[in-house]
Amino acid sequence: MSADVVILVATALLAVVALCAAIVAVRAAGRPPAAETSVAPAPPLQASTEIARVEPRESVGETEPRVVEGRLIVPPSELQVVNTALGRPGVRLSVLAHGVAHALRAESRDRVSALMRREYRRRRRERLQAGRRAVRAGRSTQPSDQWLSS
Q1: pLDDT tens digits for 76-103?
Q2: How far, in Å, are 5, 19, 22, 34, 99 from residue 15 at the CA level?
Q3: Residues near 73 by Cβ (< 8 Å), separated by ≥ 6?
Q4: How far apart are CA 73 and CA 42, in angstroms?
Q5: Radius of gyration of the chain (CA)
Q6: What confidence tens digit (pLDDT) does each residue in 25-45 have?
Q7: Best CA proximity match to 41, nearest among 63, 69, 74, 81
Q8: What is the pTM of this model?
């Protein structure tokens, strides 16, 4: 391929990626903000020299807010965690990135080219066999003049 074609293909790919990013941004901007949970105000902190100690809690899925070192910590809900971890654009982008990285590895390129070569040879063999069968079928239905003269 010439350099012009390579540049044209790269530009087209960048345009598609930019278009997808714009669509995702427009959709995200059009969504209403998620309903925020109302949290009771934190109790006033006492002016003391004690360091706030955080005791480990036994259950992992706690959703009650707490104050740690003067800051209000509100753990996300299970739904928020799932939406963040499995958000459509992020998952799709990571799957695409993984697929591209896998396809660009040398062993993958070699495997793909070997499979393509094998498939090309198999189809060529089938075409040649079909041609031979057609020639044989044509010979048996139309006797030639040699066979008639004897």
Answers
A1: 888 888 777 777 777 778 888 888 888 8
A2: 15, 6, 10, 31, 20
A3: 65, 66, 67
A4: 10
A5: 34
A6: 777 777 665 554 455 555 555
A7: 74
A8: 0.30
